[in-house]
Amino acid sequence: MSSKPINTNTVAGRAWPHRANELGDRLPDGFTIGVASSAFQIEGAARDGGRAESAWDPFTATAGRIVDGSNASVAADHYNKLPEDLTLLGELGVDAYRFSFAWSRVQPDGRGALSRAGLAFYDRLVDGLLAAGIRPMATLQHRDLPLALRGGWLNRDTSSRFADYAYELGAVFGDRVDAWVTLDEPATVTLAGYALGTDAPGEARLFAALPAAHHQLLGHGLAVQGLRAADVRGGIGIANAYSPVQPASDREADEVAAALFDLLHNRVFADAVLLGSYPAPPEPYETELRLLLETEPEDLRTIHQPLDFYGLNYVQPSRVAAGPVPVASGAVAGGGPSGNGAGGARGEAGAGSGPRRPGSRGPGSRGPASRGRGPRGPGAAGSGTGPRTAANAGRVDENAPVVSFPFHVLPFREFTVTGAGRAIAPEYLGVALSELATRYGDALPPVYLTSLGASFPDQVDSRGAVDDPARIDYLAEHLVAALDAVAPGKPAAGVSLRGAFVWSLLDGFEWTAGYTQRYGLVRVDFADPERKRTPKSSYRWLQKVLSAR
Question: Which of 184, 299, 382, 479 is the most buried (most CB within 10 A)?
Fold first, then answer.
């Protein structure tokens, strides 16, 4: 953990909308610039092409789960507007496009034969990218697990199903996809989806959510093996959320709370993938985290596969204090930052706010991969509005039990914030890179920033144009901070930073925030049945950056 940011002195005034050429000149030769998206957030066509429901479909249909009561059945209608979106990508001039396969579209039951109709859409997407000279980076699983996989990631068998799915997709697309991401942010899925219940599938298991973490990581390792068995030509990696953590004070209780948050949000996932081991729990929580200590070595060997790259999703740092926070206090509780699509209204991952400190379930014969409650714990999808946390107070049943980890996350009041309330702290991206270099050394493969972006309110003028200078500043400052951090002589100099993917190409369905947060370089009019697209000034700016290289 780090208590102070790296002082990179990178920002000489917030004038980046007029400095596109300067940034273009700073980009190293061969540095990849791409944009990113995820299937559930933009595709729509929820019933087309044989698509079955994912865990998010019934979750969004449950009252109180989504801020604006919306769903993703149409979203940005990317499925039906693919030719237009391919044109936008081509005219933008990016090197690569990171998208995700919707598992429930290409394999509706989560097992068995792949759907020809589902595959046809991704054939058109991948072939269209290649025709435009854009390298496809494909994410196998971006949080929208098929509903047919009962128990979700709590069920060890899901790891095996994921491996089979990876092999099948590798066999179909392995000669065309340039890079493969197995999972997007398993930390967010675990903490928001299975520990706090604020994201799908709505489980509120706290420490007993650890099997979901382990099964995702096991699935990752098995999927890497499956892709390699399919002889894919592209590199293979994973996209993990990472947040630099600092204690709220020098009190021992806050330091222990910060260490616990760091373990749950960062180290459980990065250590297992990069080192082949789980971190030792802070002493006061050895009982709650004993599943980590009792994992079979065979599982850890499977998780610890050689990788071609490591995806870093950074949003903001986390300042952590011990103890729960009263729901009515307004403090940030319900989670620290995660990468794209996570945190706050986008699917908060981290601390809850409430009075109880639960224990965990006992381990089974294979450590985290075995036991725990069944798939429908408190707050499971379909069980009403689910648990109450400080993050969703006022939107759920006030008589529901409060769910909490024994820590809470405090705001960084010294920073301005994004439209979603996230601290704008590019210097802490340098901290994240430095910590990865320090913790993992030679075990850290080349790094991509796989989700770089933020939500800001759109201001649509009388001509229908959208000027978003705050987004331009955000992207430029974070890119410069990252490049400075890995420069020779700087603390993260050992990191081989290969590129960055801007989140996102299009405005989309932002998980529990619905359509209230806009992350796109291209505005989507969700009130228009045709989902009209309007490139924002940030889109035009990035065009200039890329042409200036």
Answer: 184
Element at 239 (helix H, strand E):
strand 235-241
* Element (DSSP H or E) covering residue 162: helix 157-173
Report which DSSP code applies to 501: E
Token pair in block for residue 326: 């009263």
Task: Please give the Cα distance from 190 to 188 (Å, whole number).
Answer: 5
pLDDT for 357 equals: 28
From residue 479, give the alpha-carbon distance in Å to each of 117, 343, 410, 452, 495.
39, 21, 26, 9, 15
- C-alpha 378/C-alpha 267 separation (Å) is 27
Q: Give 155-211 pLDDT, tens digit per residue.
A: 999 999 999 999 999 999 999 999 999 999 999 999 999 999 999 999 999 999 999
Whose tokens are 């990069």? That residue is 274
**Which DSSP category does 177 fall into?**
-
Q: What are phi and psi of 34, to 5 degrees?
A: -135, 180
The packing angle between helices 427-440 and 268-275, to 10°, is 40
Cβ-based neighbour number of residue 406 at 10 Å: 22
Residues in the chain: 549
Burial class of 547 by CB neighbour count within 10 A (0 to 12, 13 to 18, 19+)? exposed
- Amino acid found at 174: G
Q: At 92, list the tokens.
A: 């933008």
Q: Which amino acid is at 401?
A: P
Which has the higher per-residue pLDDT, 136 or 365? 136
C-alpha 54/C-alpha 343 separation (Å) is 21
- How many Å apart are CA 323 and CA 266, to the nearest integer? 20
Identity at 245, one-letter amino acid code? V
CA distance 71 to 169: 27
pTM recorded for the entire structure: 0.89
Tokens for 507? 């405005």
Selection from 146, 546, 116, 191 nearest residue 404 by Cα: 191
* Chain Cα centroid distance, residue 104: 19
Tokens representing residue 464 in the block: 């229908």
pLDDT at 340 over 90: no
**pLDDT the model gives residue 363:** 27
Task: Summarize the confidence of residues 355-359 as an average pLDDT.
Answer: 29
H-assigned helices in 174-289: 186-188, 210-229, 252-262, 268-275
d(CA 366, CA 295): 6
* SS3 call for 159: helix
Cα 202 to Cα 383: distance, rounded to the nearest angstrom? 9
- The 3-state secondary structure of 450-491 reads EEECCCCCCCECCCCCECCHHHHHHHHHHHHHHHHHCCCCCC
DSSP 302-329: HH----S-EEEE----EEEEES---GGG
Please say whether the dihedral angle defined by the alpha carbons of residues 35, 36, 42 and 48, taken in this order, is positive or negative.
positive
**Chain Cα centroid distance, residue 129:** 23
Confidence of residue 85 (pLDDT cuts 50, 70, 90): very high
